[in-house]
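Example record for the data management plan.
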Amino acid sequence: MQTGRTVAVCAGSGGAGRTVIATNLAISLARQTGGRVLLVDAGFPLPGDAARWLGLERVKPLADMVPFIGRLTPDRFSEYVATAPSGIAILPFVSQVLQARLITDDLVGAMLNLAQGAYSSIVVDLPPLASPMCRVLLDHSDAVCLVVDPSPVGVMRAKSALEFLQSLQVPSTAIAGCVNRSATGAVNMDALERLLTVRLYADLPQDDQALATSLGRGTPLIVASPRHAISRGIDRLARELSTRSLRLRDANAPRSSAVSLDQYGDTIIQLKLKIHKRLVEEIDFKKADFAYLSDPVKLQEVRVRAEAKVMALVDEEAGEIDSRSLRRKLVKDVLDEALGLGPLEDLLADPAVTEILVNRHDQIYVERDGKLSLTSVRFLNVEQLRGVIERIVGPLGRRIDEKVPMVDARLKDGSRVNAIIPPLALRGPALTIRKFSKRMLGMEDLLRLGALSPQMAVFFSAAVRARLNIVISGGTGSGKTTLLNLLSGYVPEDERIITIEDAAELQLPQDHVVTLESRTANIEGEGAITIRDLVRNALRMRPDRIVVGECRGGEALDMLQAMNTGHDGSLTTVHANTPIDAIARMETLALMSGLDLPARAIRDQIGAAVNMVVQQSRLQDGSRRITHVTELAGYLNGEFQMRDVFLYKQSGVGPDGVVTGHFVPTGYVPEFIDRFTRRGIHVPREIFLPQTV
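Corresponding structural encoding:
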């Protein structure tokens, strides 16, 4: 099957004569090549005028092909398309405005694939370059004919059009310029070529009378007056476009000689390094100066300047690469390396990725659906990884070096970052990013995922509204913060909530919320504000509820004291594997407060303060489950009185690796159920009975 050569005709603005040149060019190509030629009138969303220039009043548009285009072959497609008296076929996108909604990227791509199998040449009369359809059309083209209006404004717009084509990674070798409507001898073609940096192959004089006559008769000028200067100029342009190797079509388009993205390998790596080095040298911004990263206006200015330079460098250094996909990726990768987080940008943009784990520069794992997997993404070298770490911590006033070889930070979107470098990291810098969730999961989500049972959901809602003090326990990545956010959402709207976190992640729906975040020391080692400092300060802020993202140190004692002094209904999380371990962990953390308190006093405080422990676990298949809901009924006779209310019992692992099991009430009715009744909160006691499962 033949693969038709496609030429896209565009202009910097309307009124430059694009359609006239496209129609006459199509006829000239048919005469010179002797093949079948299709003119695609891509007027969109307004109908184009190409049919009128060819002497046709109405032809079938592409929009009418929507119901059956998937069943067409190239031969059947050509039978559908109308033919003009001049012998060329014509296919407009639409014949009326309301059909515009039917024109999609997929439809246009399918049409061009059929056309390239049915015709030896296709000429596309592009819509204005601002149209989103232009990218699809250009991706299927082999060359671009740029129509230039020689007026000062026209030249400026032609230059803007070239910049747009460059932004889409159209190689300069794939562009053939054509000056239209010039006064005889008024255009200095050499000077105009230098200004536009594109070859101009035709200079068409202005002759409005001849064109008006052509339109009135419905006969293209190149047919009616083949010796006219405009006709001869278009013939020269057609010869250049048909004989020169102006390659543009993307590797994704059907083409026997399409570029394979894999064939470049090391060449791409070397190109990235070379272009990045030239970018740093020529644009003259210092990698160690991160002031622009924290200023959105300056960052945008730097990025626009850098992108223009990178596109020019790619055009200069990667001329042998015809694949637009590869050229675009090259531009993006260099920009990400220079101004962003390098190869991590795509992982950060992937909503399915929840954590990014960089073990070393050439080994990056991600977590999806609770499971870790090795990616093919990698940094070019250790220096690139180190540069990304510095760009993360630099704008925050932090430093990372041999004196301070590890640091915690946060990205602009709230994602938490931990970085550690040699000499502590023996295999090179390591980076861990826990992505910030744009939307916290709700109770419906957890029920759908099987993280808890409906009975447990009813119980949690009542427990929070009844102002129970709740500790959520679990390992890293088990979903503690998600559950904490969900339970905090049950706090009534008329209560004042103070949230305290190392890195603000909670997204409470209530209005009356004050969010506090701890702060690490600055580059001089001063100015640190700990969670414990914030808990103490929160007690002076008239809170109804205190929600601490995680107890990791002496703040546990302050939290217990708050729970025991009128701030009931508070919530926090700890790292532990079982409910009893969570209580032991709270005791250990309280001892870290520095106060010389006997262990018995701390245990009494825990027994009096904590009402319930909720154990969250991540199972072997990556799923999260609430495995224990346990009441703490006090500290008596040297033991904590702990009773399980709900349990998750694992029954096995399915053939697909999915953990199977079920939630069961133990039959124990917690002592604090009477507290629900006193507050007017009704909880059916049947939810605690095993037979309700």
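Summary line stored alongside the record: The longest strand covers residues 639-653.
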